[in-house]
Amino acid sequence: MTIDELRARLVKLNTEIELHREALKSLEQNRSLVQRQMNAALDPVARLPLEISSEIFRHSLAPFPDPRPLHAPMLLLNICNAWTDIALSTPSLWAAIHIIFPSGLSSTQSLKALVPIWLQRAHNRPLSIWLSGANFDYNVLSIIWSHAQQLKHLEISDVESDDDDIPLWKGIIPGPLPSLETLTTHGVYGAGLSHHHILDLLRLAPNLIECSLELDVDITVDEILVLPKLHRLMFGECGTSPLFDYRFLEHLSLPGLETLFADAILESLLSFLQRSSPPLRELVLGNESDMPLLAECLHLVPDLRRFEMWDSPCGLVEGFFAALIQSPSLLPQLRTLVFHINENQTVDNISISFWTVALRALTARRTHLQVFHLQVPIGLASSIIPAAEISAALGELAADGMKICISGSDGKWKRTYD
């Protein structure tokens, strides 16, 4: 063949190859489509009604989902088209998010690009957002605050900042938060999170129901903020000693408060109770030693059902028992009583008179009191067990229905009476 004939032959072969490639590509696309259709037909999730498959997907979520690709709900978008359709048709999958600064996402998956899409997928659902980490991104915060009307739960934790004013409040203040029901801050020591910052948020959230705070700075402000719908205020976490409230109660009036968990100065607590007249049902306090002032506070909360004190000196606990005996009007509705004896107490502080007064108080309230728990320092475990006659009397109270427990602070031993 001549050179021209060979060139023409090559052109013809290349053309045929391209045609076959296009045909093969079309066949592969058709095969992929048929495969997806067959997978959808065989996939039990895809065959379910949307409301059921959506409910299954919701059970795969953490309370505050991680937005990275290997975590639900983002992971659900990468399984198959049917699952993608279900996930995108379920706004509740996108109604919560945990935003960590910095995020660890690639530049193409930045929070600035991801967060608006995520929140748009939630449509008009109430939003739950958890913010944590260092170097808060102002652009991302602006996106979040643009959805402030939908925000129902807000948590701020593990904030790292050397500034006196954490970036969350540097020039970016949210608008009204009419739907916000819970606010939580923790892990913020050293971040300058003060009264001013919290009051900025509380002032915008008139319908707040529950608030759990960790404050870092005591700054005096000349303001009394009234939150009539706040039912639960905690400084710290349940099951641990309350955190100091930095006199924050002095700036609040909470006429609907039912639970208070705080290491508060008793003078501040007294003025707060006098100002708010709250229908407290549960009160957990930190270290106190002034029994007369404590009794004055407790007389202002006659509907209290549960009272707990941490780091209590034995003298105050004994004085509390004596007050229960002497004053039937003190806490007439009390059902649960818990004391955590201060770790600095010695065996000499828990005397026979301590157990005698405790038994008299429990006996005086036997028709109402349902639970009594005394936690003692671990070094006293072998020494503080009540004498035989006291133990027998405690057993009789337990037989009548009162749950009585004496335990060590290390959690390794306890004595129950039943």
Automatic annotation (TrEMBL):
Q: Which UniProt keywords apply?
A: Coiled coil
Which parts form a coiled-coil structure per UniProt? 3-37
The record's section on Gene3D superfamilies has: Ribonuclease Inhibitor
Q: What is the lineage of its organism?
A: Eukaryota, Fungi, Dikarya, Basidiomycota, Agaricomycotina
Q: What is this protein called?
A: F-box domain-containing protein
